[in-house]
Amino acid sequence: MKYSILTILGILLFFSCKKEYRYIYDVENEVVYESNSEKNKQKSSAQFISILYSNLFQTSISLQESNQLSELRMAVGDKQVADNLIINNYVNSAGVNLPTDADMRADIPKFVEKTYIRFYLRKPTPYEAKFLKEEIENDPGLTPKLIYAAFAESNEYKFY
Question: How many Å apart are CA 113 and CA 90, to the nearest integer?
């Protein structure tokens, strides 16, 4: 009886011990941007207009213009209509900072990544990058102006 208890304890001890493995991966340091699913706070009118202006003109908006557009946006019943008007006005303004069509088509993957970072503060997923790259390659009428307007009008852009 004594030997059988010792044998059982020995077997249990043998199977309960496990070697611990440590895996080390050589991963490069990479800045990780938020994914779309982590954005859950909607931008206020002032935030939306200020960030939009900064993204398109690469400078800050004046307080007076920001206040006027915020009041206008809040006064309009349909926010999407107000946003479309503001975005189209800005994209078609003379001082907007857009890459040329030739620059966009010279290095499409770089343009796609920079656009996602500029508007969404994150890198595109492989699917998003592939999709937008193919759209640019297949549609000669697709300009940076249209792409920037589409990014600014998207639902993801309205959240942070």
Answer: 22
Beta bridge partners of 42: 159
- Structure-block tokens of residue 154: 């998207």
Whether the model pTM is above 0.70? yes
The backbone torsions φ and ψ at residue 27, rounded to the nearest 5 degrees and listed phi first, read: -110, 135
* Paired tokens of 52: 């939009």
pLDDT tens for the chain, 160 residues: list them. 666 676 766 666 566 656 555 555 555 554 454 566 677 788 888 888 999 999 999 999 999 998 898 888 888 878 888 889 999 999 999 889 999 999 999 999 999 999 999 999 899 999 999 999 999 999 999 999 999 999 999 989 988 8
Lookup result for tokens 């990014």: 151
59 DSSP assignment: S
Cβ neighbors of 131 (< 8 A, separation 6 or more) are none
Q: Residue 8 is encoded by which pair of tokens?
A: 């059982």
